[in-house]
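User: For a teaching handout, I'd like to show students what a predicted protein-ligand complex looks like in C-alpha coordinate form. I'll give you the sequence and the SMILES for flavin mononucleotide. Please answer with just the structure.
Assistant: Understood, here is the input followed by the structure.
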Amino acid sequence: MNNRDIQAAWKYHDGTKHSYWSIRNRPNFLDWANRPLSFKIYPTIEPLPLPRDLPQTGVAALSAISEPVSSVGGESVPNLQDLARILHFSAGITKRRASQGGEVYFRAAACTGALYEIELYVVTGDLKGLDAGIYHFNPADLSLRLLREGDLRGNLARATALQPAVAHAPATILCTGTYWRNAWKYQARTYRHFGWDNGTLLANLLSVSAASRLPAEIVLGFVDAEVNRLLDLDTRREVSLCLVPHGRTSASSLPASIEVPALGLETIPLSERQVEYPAMLEMHDASSLESEEEVLHWRRKQPIPSASAPAGEAVRLQRLPKEEQPKDTIEQVILRRGSSRTFDQTESTKLSQLSTILDCSTPGLLADFLDSPGAQLNDVYLIVHAVQGLKPGAYFFRRERNTLELLKEGDFRAQAYHLGLEQRLSADACADIFFLADLNCILERYGNRGYRAVQLEAGTIGGKMYLTAYAQRLGATGLTFFDDDVTNFFSPHAEGKSAIFLVAIGKPLKRMQR
Ligand SMILES: Cc1cc2nc3c(=O)[nH]c(=O)nc-3n(C[C@H](O)[C@H](O)[C@H](O)COP(=O)(O)O)c2cc1C
Protein backbone atom coordinates (compact mmCIF):
# COMPACT_ATOMS: atom_id res chain seq x y z
CA MET A 1 0.00 0.00 0.00
CA ASN A 2 1.14 3.50 -0.70
CA ASN A 3 0.33 6.83 0.91
CA ARG A 4 0.23 8.41 -2.54
CA ASP A 5 -2.45 6.08 -3.86
CA ILE A 6 -5.25 8.39 -2.74
CA GLN A 7 -8.03 6.28 -4.18
CA ALA A 8 -7.73 4.38 -0.88
CA ALA A 9 -8.86 7.38 1.18
CA TRP A 10 -11.70 8.13 -1.25
CA LYS A 11 -12.81 4.50 -1.15
CA TYR A 12 -12.93 4.55 2.64
CA HIS A 13 -14.59 7.98 2.85
CA ASP A 14 -17.25 7.26 0.25
CA GLY A 15 -17.84 3.77 1.64
CA THR A 16 -18.57 5.08 5.15
CA LYS A 17 -20.88 7.97 4.31
CA HIS A 18 -24.19 8.18 6.12
CA SER A 19 -27.26 8.92 4.06
CA TYR A 20 -30.99 8.76 4.69
CA TRP A 21 -31.03 5.38 2.94
CA SER A 22 -27.81 3.90 4.31
CA ILE A 23 -29.00 4.05 7.90
CA ARG A 24 -32.33 2.51 6.93
CA ASN A 25 -30.86 -0.21 4.73
CA ARG A 26 -28.04 -1.13 7.12
CA PRO A 27 -29.54 -0.99 10.61
CA ASN A 28 -27.07 -2.01 13.29
CA PHE A 29 -28.21 -4.11 16.26
CA LEU A 30 -25.97 -3.96 19.27
CA ASP A 31 -24.88 -7.23 20.84
CA TRP A 32 -24.84 -6.13 24.47
CA ALA A 33 -23.54 -9.51 25.68
CA ASN A 34 -20.43 -8.98 23.56
CA ARG A 35 -19.88 -5.32 24.54
CA PRO A 36 -16.13 -4.59 24.69
CA LEU A 37 -14.27 -3.68 27.87
CA SER A 38 -13.55 0.03 27.96
CA PHE A 39 -10.05 -0.38 29.40
CA LYS A 40 -6.85 -2.03 28.20
CA ILE A 41 -5.70 -4.19 31.08
CA TYR A 42 -2.28 -5.82 31.42
CA PRO A 43 -2.98 -8.37 34.17
CA THR A 44 0.66 -9.32 34.77
CA ILE A 45 2.18 -5.85 35.26
CA GLU A 46 2.22 -4.12 38.62
CA PRO A 47 0.61 -0.64 38.58
CA LEU A 48 2.55 2.48 39.50
CA PRO A 49 -0.16 4.67 41.07
CA LEU A 50 -0.19 8.29 39.92
CA PRO A 51 -0.57 11.06 42.52
CA ARG A 52 -4.24 11.98 43.01
CA ASP A 53 -4.20 15.25 44.94
CA LEU A 54 -2.77 17.44 42.23
CA PRO A 55 -2.23 21.17 42.73
CA GLN A 56 -4.62 23.20 40.52
CA THR A 57 -2.92 25.19 37.77
CA GLY A 58 -5.15 28.20 38.50
CA VAL A 59 -5.12 29.04 34.77
CA ALA A 60 -8.40 30.31 33.30
CA ALA A 61 -9.89 27.86 30.81
CA LEU A 62 -10.11 30.31 27.90
CA SER A 63 -6.39 31.16 28.17
CA ALA A 64 -5.41 27.51 28.48
CA ILE A 65 -7.47 26.60 25.39
CA SER A 66 -6.26 29.40 23.15
CA GLU A 67 -2.71 30.20 24.27
CA PRO A 68 -0.20 27.38 23.81
CA VAL A 69 3.20 27.66 25.47
CA SER A 70 5.99 28.47 23.05
CA SER A 71 8.65 25.82 22.58
CA VAL A 72 11.25 28.50 21.95
CA GLY A 73 13.14 29.39 25.05
CA GLY A 74 14.50 27.66 28.06
CA GLU A 75 14.33 24.18 29.38
CA SER A 76 10.95 22.92 30.59
CA VAL A 77 10.69 19.43 31.98
CA PRO A 78 7.45 17.89 33.28
CA ASN A 79 7.47 16.07 36.62
CA LEU A 80 5.25 13.18 37.67
CA GLN A 81 2.53 15.54 38.94
CA ASP A 82 2.41 17.35 35.59
CA LEU A 83 2.08 14.05 33.76
CA ALA A 84 -0.63 12.84 36.14
CA ARG A 85 -2.59 16.08 35.66
CA ILE A 86 -2.31 15.94 31.87
CA LEU A 87 -3.29 12.26 31.64
CA HIS A 88 -6.17 12.51 34.10
CA PHE A 89 -7.75 15.62 32.59
CA SER A 90 -7.46 14.16 29.06
CA ALA A 91 -8.49 10.54 29.47
CA GLY A 92 -9.28 10.06 33.17
CA ILE A 93 -12.63 9.04 34.67
CA THR A 94 -14.64 12.08 35.73
CA LYS A 95 -18.05 10.54 36.46
CA ARG A 96 -19.92 7.21 36.61
CA ARG A 97 -23.49 6.38 35.64
CA ALA A 98 -25.58 3.21 35.44
CA SER A 99 -26.77 2.27 31.94
CA GLN A 100 -28.31 -0.61 29.99
CA GLY A 101 -24.99 -2.46 29.66
CA GLY A 102 -23.80 -1.86 33.23
CA GLU A 103 -21.95 1.05 34.76
CA VAL A 104 -20.42 3.57 32.31
CA TYR A 105 -17.25 5.35 33.38
CA PHE A 106 -17.39 8.72 31.64
CA ARG A 107 -14.10 10.36 30.82
CA ALA A 108 -12.69 13.87 30.73
CA ALA A 109 -13.15 14.28 26.95
CA ALA A 110 -16.23 13.52 24.85
CA CYS A 111 -16.12 10.30 22.83
CA THR A 112 -18.52 8.75 20.33
CA GLY A 113 -20.81 6.32 22.13
CA ALA A 114 -18.80 6.67 25.38
CA LEU A 115 -16.70 3.77 24.09
CA TYR A 116 -13.27 5.32 24.73
CA GLU A 117 -11.17 3.62 22.08
CA ILE A 118 -8.20 5.98 22.46
CA GLU A 119 -5.35 4.68 24.67
CA LEU A 120 -2.44 6.77 25.98
CA TYR A 121 1.21 5.76 26.46
CA VAL A 122 4.22 7.74 27.64
CA VAL A 123 7.77 7.45 26.30
CA THR A 124 10.02 9.26 28.73
CA GLY A 125 13.55 9.89 29.92
CA ASP A 126 14.20 10.12 33.67
CA LEU A 127 11.80 12.62 35.22
CA LYS A 128 11.38 13.78 38.80
CA GLY A 129 9.34 10.93 40.29
CA LEU A 130 9.45 8.62 37.24
CA ASP A 131 12.23 6.47 35.77
CA ALA A 132 12.89 6.43 32.04
CA GLY A 133 10.74 3.93 30.17
CA ILE A 134 7.61 3.31 28.11
CA TYR A 135 4.41 3.28 30.14
CA HIS A 136 0.74 2.58 29.48
CA PHE A 137 -1.81 4.82 31.23
CA ASN A 138 -4.78 3.06 32.78
CA PRO A 139 -7.54 5.50 33.79
CA ALA A 140 -9.41 2.75 35.68
CA ASP A 141 -6.95 2.82 38.57
CA LEU A 142 -5.16 6.07 37.61
CA SER A 143 -1.86 4.33 37.19
CA LEU A 144 1.00 3.73 34.79
CA ARG A 145 2.32 0.30 33.85
CA LEU A 146 5.89 -0.09 32.72
CA LEU A 147 6.10 -1.86 29.35
CA ARG A 148 9.78 -1.24 28.57
CA GLU A 149 12.54 -0.06 30.90
CA GLY A 150 15.13 2.55 29.92
CA ASP A 151 15.33 5.63 27.76
CA LEU A 152 13.86 4.86 24.33
CA ARG A 153 13.35 8.44 23.19
CA GLY A 154 16.06 7.87 20.57
CA ASN A 155 13.91 5.21 18.90
CA LEU A 156 10.89 7.49 18.94
CA ALA A 157 12.79 10.47 17.55
CA ARG A 158 14.26 8.31 14.79
CA ALA A 159 10.75 7.12 13.86
CA THR A 160 9.77 10.76 13.30
CA ALA A 161 12.93 11.47 11.22
CA LEU A 162 14.15 13.65 14.12
CA GLN A 163 11.13 15.94 14.26
CA PRO A 164 12.54 18.78 16.43
CA ALA A 165 9.89 18.79 19.20
CA VAL A 166 10.09 14.99 19.63
CA ALA A 167 13.90 15.01 19.50
CA HIS A 168 14.03 17.59 22.34
CA ALA A 169 11.12 16.36 24.45
CA PRO A 170 11.77 15.00 27.94
CA ALA A 171 8.53 13.00 27.51
CA THR A 172 6.14 12.24 24.66
CA ILE A 173 2.55 11.05 25.01
CA LEU A 174 1.40 8.62 22.30
CA CYS A 175 -2.25 8.13 21.34
CA THR A 176 -3.48 4.88 19.83
CA GLY A 177 -6.87 3.72 18.54
CA THR A 178 -8.40 0.34 19.38
CA TYR A 179 -10.68 -0.66 16.49
CA TRP A 180 -13.10 -3.06 18.14
CA ARG A 181 -13.89 -0.96 21.18
CA ASN A 182 -15.63 1.56 18.92
CA ALA A 183 -16.48 -0.64 15.91
CA TRP A 184 -18.72 -2.79 18.14
CA LYS A 185 -21.24 0.03 17.67
CA TYR A 186 -20.07 2.07 14.69
CA GLN A 187 -18.57 -0.61 12.44
CA ALA A 188 -16.28 0.68 9.68
CA ARG A 189 -17.03 4.35 10.46
CA THR A 190 -14.77 3.95 13.51
CA TYR A 191 -11.73 5.07 11.52
CA ARG A 192 -13.29 8.54 11.25
CA HIS A 193 -14.04 8.37 14.98
CA PHE A 194 -10.35 7.72 15.67
CA GLY A 195 -9.67 11.25 14.42
CA TRP A 196 -12.68 12.80 16.18
CA ASP A 197 -12.24 11.11 19.55
CA ASN A 198 -8.47 11.46 19.53
CA GLY A 199 -9.10 15.12 18.69
CA THR A 200 -11.49 15.90 21.57
CA LEU A 201 -8.98 14.23 23.90
CA LEU A 202 -6.17 16.36 22.42
CA ALA A 203 -8.18 19.54 23.03
CA ASN A 204 -8.10 18.72 26.76
CA LEU A 205 -4.53 17.50 26.68
CA LEU A 206 -3.12 20.56 24.89
CA SER A 207 -5.08 22.93 27.16
CA VAL A 208 -3.89 21.25 30.36
CA SER A 209 -0.32 21.13 29.05
CA ALA A 210 -0.51 24.87 28.34
CA ALA A 211 -1.93 25.47 31.83
CA SER A 212 0.99 23.43 33.21
CA ARG A 213 3.39 25.78 31.34
CA LEU A 214 4.61 23.00 29.07
CA PRO A 215 5.03 23.32 25.30
CA ALA A 216 3.21 20.53 23.47
CA GLU A 217 2.35 19.92 19.83
CA ILE A 218 0.76 17.30 17.59
CA VAL A 219 3.03 15.11 15.48
CA LEU A 220 1.48 12.97 12.78
CA GLY A 221 4.60 12.23 10.70
CA PHE A 222 6.21 8.99 11.90
CA VAL A 223 7.10 5.55 10.62
CA ASP A 224 4.02 3.67 11.76
CA ALA A 225 5.61 0.25 12.08
CA GLU A 226 8.45 1.62 14.28
CA VAL A 227 6.11 3.30 16.74
CA ASN A 228 3.72 0.35 16.81
CA ARG A 229 6.64 -1.99 17.53
CA LEU A 230 7.86 0.23 20.35
CA LEU A 231 4.43 -0.05 22.01
CA ASP A 232 4.22 -3.76 21.15
CA LEU A 233 0.81 -3.33 19.51
CA ASP A 234 -1.13 -6.07 17.75
CA THR A 235 -1.83 -3.87 14.73
CA ARG A 236 -4.91 -5.74 13.58
CA ARG A 237 -6.47 -4.47 16.79
CA GLU A 238 -4.75 -1.27 17.86
CA VAL A 239 -2.64 1.30 15.98
CA SER A 240 -0.67 4.45 16.79
CA LEU A 241 -2.42 7.66 15.76
CA CYS A 242 -0.32 10.59 16.94
CA LEU A 243 2.50 11.74 19.19
CA VAL A 244 2.46 14.72 21.51
CA PRO A 245 5.95 15.74 22.65
CA HIS A 246 5.92 17.59 25.99
CA GLY A 247 8.43 20.09 27.35
CA ARG A 248 11.86 20.83 26.03
CA THR A 249 15.30 19.78 27.12
CA SER A 250 18.49 21.48 26.02
CA ALA A 251 20.45 18.19 26.21
CA SER A 252 22.16 17.98 22.84
CA SER A 253 22.46 14.23 22.55
CA LEU A 254 19.62 11.78 22.22
CA PRO A 255 20.04 8.21 23.42
CA ALA A 256 21.01 5.91 20.56
CA SER A 257 18.21 3.98 18.93
CA ILE A 258 18.32 0.30 20.01
CA GLU A 259 16.74 -2.98 18.86
CA VAL A 260 13.47 -3.57 20.70
CA PRO A 261 12.31 -7.14 21.15
CA ALA A 262 8.64 -8.10 20.87
CA LEU A 263 7.12 -8.24 24.36
CA GLY A 264 4.03 -10.35 23.79
CA LEU A 265 2.49 -8.96 26.97
CA GLU A 266 -0.79 -10.49 28.04
CA THR A 267 -3.87 -8.23 27.93
CA ILE A 268 -7.45 -9.08 28.94
CA PRO A 269 -9.56 -9.75 25.78
CA LEU A 270 -12.00 -6.91 25.09
CA SER A 271 -14.88 -9.21 24.17
CA GLU A 272 -15.54 -12.89 23.66
CA ARG A 273 -15.61 -12.24 19.89
CA GLN A 274 -14.22 -9.37 17.83
CA VAL A 275 -15.33 -8.45 14.33
CA GLU A 276 -12.69 -7.10 11.96
CA TYR A 277 -13.65 -4.44 9.38
CA PRO A 278 -11.16 -4.77 6.49
CA ALA A 279 -12.02 -1.27 5.17
CA MET A 280 -10.40 0.25 8.23
CA LEU A 281 -7.27 -1.92 8.11
CA GLU A 282 -6.88 -0.99 4.44
CA MET A 283 -7.36 2.71 5.17
CA HIS A 284 -4.77 2.56 7.93
CA ASP A 285 -2.25 0.68 5.83
CA ALA A 286 -2.73 3.02 2.90
CA SER A 287 -2.06 6.07 5.11
CA SER A 288 1.00 4.59 6.83
CA LEU A 289 4.48 6.02 6.29
CA GLU A 290 7.11 3.38 5.73
CA SER A 291 10.55 4.98 6.13
CA GLU A 292 12.28 8.01 7.61
CA GLU A 293 12.76 9.34 4.06
CA GLU A 294 9.03 9.15 3.47
CA VAL A 295 8.38 10.95 6.78
CA LEU A 296 10.83 13.72 5.84
CA HIS A 297 9.30 14.07 2.43
CA TRP A 298 5.78 14.11 3.92
CA ARG A 299 6.73 16.89 6.33
CA ARG A 300 7.96 19.06 3.47
CA LYS A 301 4.57 19.13 1.76
CA GLN A 302 3.35 22.25 0.01
CA PRO A 303 1.02 24.68 1.82
CA ILE A 304 -2.70 24.45 1.14
CA PRO A 305 -3.97 27.55 -0.64
CA SER A 306 -7.02 29.12 0.98
CA ALA A 307 -9.46 29.83 -1.78
CA SER A 308 -13.03 30.55 -0.74
CA ALA A 309 -14.60 33.44 -2.62
CA PRO A 310 -16.27 36.08 -0.40
CA ALA A 311 -19.94 35.29 0.15
CA GLY A 312 -22.73 37.64 1.31
CA GLU A 313 -23.16 40.25 4.02
CA ALA A 314 -20.42 39.97 6.67
CA VAL A 315 -20.85 40.31 10.43
CA ARG A 316 -17.74 41.03 12.51
CA LEU A 317 -17.26 38.73 15.48
CA GLN A 318 -16.52 40.20 18.86
CA ARG A 319 -15.03 38.09 21.59
CA LEU A 320 -16.11 38.77 25.19
CA PRO A 321 -14.03 41.60 26.65
CA LYS A 322 -11.28 40.31 28.96
CA GLU A 323 -13.05 41.58 32.12
CA GLU A 324 -16.23 39.68 31.24
CA GLN A 325 -14.49 36.42 30.43
CA PRO A 326 -15.20 33.55 32.81
CA LYS A 327 -12.45 32.94 35.36
CA ASP A 328 -13.05 29.20 35.93
CA THR A 329 -9.87 27.17 35.64
CA ILE A 330 -9.36 24.63 32.91
CA GLU A 331 -9.66 21.81 35.44
CA GLN A 332 -13.04 23.11 36.72
CA VAL A 333 -14.37 23.36 33.16
CA ILE A 334 -13.21 19.87 32.21
CA LEU A 335 -14.83 18.43 35.33
CA ARG A 336 -18.21 19.98 34.56
CA ARG A 337 -18.15 19.22 30.80
CA GLY A 338 -20.56 16.57 29.61
CA SER A 339 -22.33 16.37 26.26
CA SER A 340 -25.72 18.07 26.34
CA ARG A 341 -28.56 15.58 25.87
CA THR A 342 -31.29 18.19 25.23
CA PHE A 343 -31.16 21.85 24.28
CA ASP A 344 -33.83 24.44 25.09
CA GLN A 345 -35.15 25.75 21.77
CA THR A 346 -36.63 28.82 23.46
CA GLU A 347 -33.22 30.06 24.59
CA SER A 348 -30.63 32.05 22.67
CA THR A 349 -26.96 32.83 23.09
CA LYS A 350 -25.11 36.13 22.67
CA LEU A 351 -23.01 36.92 19.63
CA SER A 352 -20.06 37.61 21.95
CA GLN A 353 -20.34 34.06 23.33
CA LEU A 354 -20.38 32.48 19.87
CA SER A 355 -17.51 34.78 18.84
CA THR A 356 -15.51 33.63 21.87
CA ILE A 357 -16.09 30.00 20.92
CA LEU A 358 -14.93 30.52 17.34
CA ASP A 359 -12.06 32.79 18.25
CA CYS A 360 -10.60 30.65 21.06
CA SER A 361 -10.88 27.40 19.10
CA THR A 362 -9.51 28.36 15.73
CA PRO A 363 -6.24 30.27 16.05
CA GLY A 364 -4.59 27.28 14.35
CA LEU A 365 -3.08 24.23 16.02
CA LEU A 366 0.59 23.55 16.64
CA ALA A 367 0.92 20.48 14.45
CA ASP A 368 3.51 19.11 12.06
CA PHE A 369 0.88 18.81 9.29
CA LEU A 370 0.33 22.59 9.29
CA ASP A 371 3.08 24.53 7.63
CA SER A 372 2.46 28.02 8.94
CA PRO A 373 1.07 29.54 12.13
CA GLY A 374 -2.68 29.89 11.85
CA ALA A 375 -3.05 27.42 8.97
CA GLN A 376 -6.12 25.15 9.06
CA LEU A 377 -7.29 22.29 6.85
CA ASN A 378 -10.97 22.49 7.75
CA ASP A 379 -13.39 25.26 6.81
CA VAL A 380 -16.10 26.20 9.30
CA TYR A 381 -19.76 26.68 8.32
CA LEU A 382 -22.66 27.39 10.66
CA ILE A 383 -26.40 27.14 10.85
CA VAL A 384 -27.46 29.86 13.25
CA HIS A 385 -30.85 29.39 14.92
CA ALA A 386 -30.83 31.67 17.96
CA VAL A 387 -27.88 34.01 18.40
CA GLN A 388 -28.68 37.57 19.51
CA GLY A 389 -27.44 40.03 16.86
CA LEU A 390 -27.35 37.48 14.02
CA LYS A 391 -30.06 36.73 11.49
CA PRO A 392 -31.01 33.04 11.55
CA GLY A 393 -29.42 31.39 8.54
CA ALA A 394 -26.42 29.62 7.04
CA TYR A 395 -23.00 31.24 7.37
CA PHE A 396 -19.37 30.77 6.38
CA PHE A 397 -16.77 31.65 9.03
CA ARG A 398 -13.98 33.63 7.37
CA ARG A 399 -11.27 33.11 9.93
CA GLU A 400 -8.68 35.49 8.57
CA ARG A 401 -11.15 38.40 8.81
CA ASN A 402 -12.95 37.16 11.92
CA THR A 403 -16.32 37.55 10.21
CA LEU A 404 -19.38 35.43 9.50
CA GLU A 405 -20.59 35.71 5.90
CA LEU A 406 -24.28 35.10 5.38
CA LEU A 407 -24.88 32.40 2.74
CA LYS A 408 -28.65 32.27 3.08
CA GLU A 409 -31.13 33.67 5.56
CA GLY A 410 -33.93 31.62 7.09
CA ASP A 411 -35.17 29.35 9.83
CA PHE A 412 -33.33 26.10 9.13
CA ARG A 413 -34.20 24.11 12.24
CA ALA A 414 -35.98 21.44 10.18
CA GLN A 415 -32.99 21.12 7.83
CA ALA A 416 -30.60 21.00 10.79
CA TYR A 417 -32.64 18.19 12.34
CA HIS A 418 -32.22 16.22 9.13
CA LEU A 419 -28.51 16.99 8.64
CA GLY A 420 -27.67 15.92 12.20
CA LEU A 421 -28.96 12.42 11.50
CA GLU A 422 -32.50 13.32 12.52
CA GLN A 423 -31.57 14.17 16.08
CA ARG A 424 -33.38 16.91 18.03
CA LEU A 425 -30.08 18.26 19.35
CA SER A 426 -29.10 19.87 16.05
CA ALA A 427 -32.57 21.43 15.64
CA ASP A 428 -32.81 22.77 19.21
CA ALA A 429 -29.27 24.16 19.41
CA CYS A 430 -28.52 27.89 19.20
CA ALA A 431 -25.98 27.15 16.46
CA ASP A 432 -24.63 24.11 14.64
CA ILE A 433 -20.97 24.33 13.65
CA PHE A 434 -19.99 22.19 10.67
CA PHE A 435 -16.47 21.37 9.50
CA LEU A 436 -16.04 20.85 5.77
CA ALA A 437 -12.79 20.30 3.91
CA ASP A 438 -11.51 20.25 0.37
CA LEU A 439 -10.41 16.61 0.44
CA ASN A 440 -9.24 16.70 -3.19
CA CYS A 441 -6.67 19.32 -2.37
CA ILE A 442 -5.70 17.83 1.01
CA LEU A 443 -5.18 14.28 -0.31
CA GLU A 444 -3.26 15.64 -3.29
CA ARG A 445 -0.82 17.37 -0.95
CA TYR A 446 -0.59 14.94 1.99
CA GLY A 447 -1.55 11.62 0.43
CA ASN A 448 -3.91 9.34 2.37
CA ARG A 449 -2.38 10.56 5.63
CA GLY A 450 -4.10 13.85 4.93
CA TYR A 451 -7.33 12.01 5.76
CA ARG A 452 -6.01 11.26 9.24
CA ALA A 453 -4.90 14.90 9.59
CA VAL A 454 -8.18 16.49 8.55
CA GLN A 455 -10.27 14.30 10.90
CA LEU A 456 -7.88 14.83 13.81
CA GLU A 457 -7.78 18.58 13.29
CA ALA A 458 -11.58 18.81 13.22
CA GLY A 459 -11.89 16.70 16.38
CA THR A 460 -9.32 18.85 18.21
CA ILE A 461 -10.96 22.15 17.23
CA GLY A 462 -14.38 20.65 18.00
CA GLY A 463 -13.05 19.60 21.42
CA LYS A 464 -11.88 23.16 22.05
CA MET A 465 -15.36 24.39 21.09
CA TYR A 466 -16.86 22.04 23.70
CA LEU A 467 -14.54 23.47 26.36
CA THR A 468 -15.09 27.13 25.39
CA ALA A 469 -18.84 26.55 25.46
CA TYR A 470 -18.73 24.97 28.93
CA ALA A 471 -16.37 27.70 30.19
CA GLN A 472 -19.23 30.12 29.35
CA ARG A 473 -21.90 27.91 30.98
CA LEU A 474 -23.32 26.89 27.61
CA GLY A 475 -23.80 23.30 26.49
CA ALA A 476 -22.34 21.43 23.52
CA THR A 477 -22.35 18.05 21.86
CA GLY A 478 -20.61 16.39 18.93
CA LEU A 479 -23.04 14.93 16.41
CA THR A 480 -22.87 12.71 13.39
CA PHE A 481 -24.43 13.72 10.05
CA PHE A 482 -25.64 12.83 6.56
CA ASP A 483 -22.44 13.55 4.61
CA ASP A 484 -23.57 14.66 1.16
CA ASP A 485 -26.66 16.46 2.42
CA VAL A 486 -24.40 18.72 4.51
CA THR A 487 -22.34 19.67 1.44
CA ASN A 488 -25.49 20.25 -0.59
CA PHE A 489 -27.01 22.42 2.11
CA PHE A 490 -24.01 24.80 2.12
CA SER A 491 -23.58 24.75 -1.68
CA PRO A 492 -22.82 26.38 -4.03
CA HIS A 493 -20.30 27.86 -1.55
CA ALA A 494 -19.24 24.41 -0.29
CA GLU A 495 -19.28 22.69 -3.67
CA GLY A 496 -16.56 20.04 -3.88
CA LYS A 497 -15.96 19.95 -0.10
CA SER A 498 -16.61 16.99 2.18
CA ALA A 499 -18.39 17.01 5.53
CA ILE A 500 -15.95 16.14 8.31
CA PHE A 501 -17.39 17.00 11.74
CA LEU A 502 -20.28 18.69 13.56
CA VAL A 503 -20.64 20.34 16.98
CA ALA A 504 -23.92 21.79 18.24
CA ILE A 505 -23.88 24.62 20.80
CA GLY A 506 -26.88 25.62 22.88
CA LYS A 507 -28.48 26.11 26.26
CA PRO A 508 -29.11 22.79 28.00
CA LEU A 509 -32.78 22.21 28.81
CA LYS A 510 -32.11 21.24 32.40
CA ARG A 511 -29.96 23.50 34.51
CA MET A 512 -26.42 22.17 34.58
CA GLN A 513 -25.89 20.66 37.99
CA ARG A 514 -22.15 20.11 37.75
C1 LIG B 1 -17.36 13.16 17.64
C2 LIG B 1 -18.56 12.96 18.49
C3 LIG B 1 -19.77 12.63 17.91
C4 LIG B 1 -20.90 12.45 18.70
N1 LIG B 1 -22.09 12.16 18.11
C5 LIG B 1 -23.20 12.09 18.86
C6 LIG B 1 -24.48 11.89 18.24
O1 LIG B 1 -24.57 11.76 17.02
N2 LIG B 1 -25.57 11.87 19.05
C7 LIG B 1 -25.48 12.03 20.41
O2 LIG B 1 -26.52 12.02 21.10
N3 LIG B 1 -24.27 12.21 21.02
C8 LIG B 1 -23.15 12.26 20.29
N4 LIG B 1 -21.93 12.46 20.89
C9 LIG B 1 -21.83 12.60 22.36
C10 LIG B 1 -21.31 11.31 22.99
O3 LIG B 1 -22.34 10.37 23.04
C11 LIG B 1 -20.74 11.61 24.39
O4 LIG B 1 -19.57 12.34 24.23
C12 LIG B 1 -20.44 10.36 25.17
O5 LIG B 1 -21.60 9.69 25.52
C13 LIG B 1 -19.65 10.68 26.41
O6 LIG B 1 -20.39 11.51 27.25
P1 LIG B 1 -19.89 12.94 27.71
O7 LIG B 1 -19.51 13.71 26.50
O8 LIG B 1 -21.06 13.53 28.44
O9 LIG B 1 -18.71 12.76 28.62
C14 LIG B 1 -20.79 12.60 20.11
C15 LIG B 1 -19.56 12.92 20.69
C16 LIG B 1 -18.45 13.09 19.90
C17 LIG B 1 -17.14 13.42 20.55
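For the handout, you might add this sentence: The longest strand covers residues 238-246.
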